[in-house]
From TrEMBL:
Domain of life: Bacteria
HAMAP family according to UniProt: FtsQ_subfam
Residue intervals of the POTRA domain: 37-106
Free-text function comment from the UniProt entry: Essential cell division protein. May link together the upstream cell division proteins, which are predominantly cytoplasmic, with the downstream cell division proteins, which are predominantly periplasmic. May control correct divisome assembly.
Protein name: Cell division protein FtsQ
Membrane topology: Single-pass type II membrane protein
Subcellular location: Cell inner membrane; Membrane
Assembly and oligomerization: Part of a complex composed of FtsB, FtsL and FtsQ.
GO biological process: cell septum assembly; FtsZ-dependent cytokinesis
Family indicated by similarity: Belongs to the FtsQ/DivIB family. FtsQ subfamily.
InterPro entries: Cell_div_FtsQ/DivIB_C, FtsQ, FtsQ_C_sf, POTRA, POTRA_FtsQ_type
PANTHER family reported for this sequence: CELL DIVISION PROTEIN FTSQ (PTHR35851)
Transmembrane segments: 12-31
Amino acid sequence: MWDNHRALRTLANLLLGSSVMMVLYAAGFWLTHSPVFPVKKIQIQGEMKRVTPEQLRYIAEHELLGTFFTLNIDKTRAAFGKLPWVREAQVRRQWPDTLQIEVEEHVAIARWGENGLVNSRGEWFDAASDQPLPVLYGPAGAQKDMVAMLAALKPVLQPAGLKPQRLWLSPRRAWRVELDNGVQVELGRGDVEKRAALFAAHWKGTLAALPYHIESVDMRYPNGFAVRMPDYKAPPAHGQKQ
């Protein structure tokens, strides 16, 4: 073999190539892990009303580990996602030393019973709010349907000057709503928006003028509705002594 110049030249080339590769790998490893390339700037973008600068600063100081090259983008995104009002965080590197973070906040639409909030996309999230929000009560996983129904009922009730304050969805998919005047309306499982519109029309034209406290209205009847008025007393039958 030692007399075979071609084989020796091939072996030398392989050794040289391996050495170059090892040097390049070592240089690349040093380059990406060297403290010479720290993250010096963090740019945070997004319309934020609930997320505070102090919260963002805490995440930046305690959760962002590594250099410009070694910083784990997924872990960084997850770190900002831990903040209660952050729905999503997009993280990008910008050469040579900047990290760009775009934050999308939750927009709270309603409360989910006594446990957390629901955003405009029908997603549950755990955060505190002092906003006067409607309250939703329904089966697990029904948040999107309930947000959609809440949005549908608002314009239907608006002509009567009413707003939904609480909304229930039963396991059998029957709807009930409590309005901001305290009246509960049974809407059932079919033609919910139509029944709500019919209630709004009768409320504005007839019900609101009644001299009694209205507790609830049942709109599930095919040809009418039933009104519960606890302080109403039926007049005596004809000929009956009072």
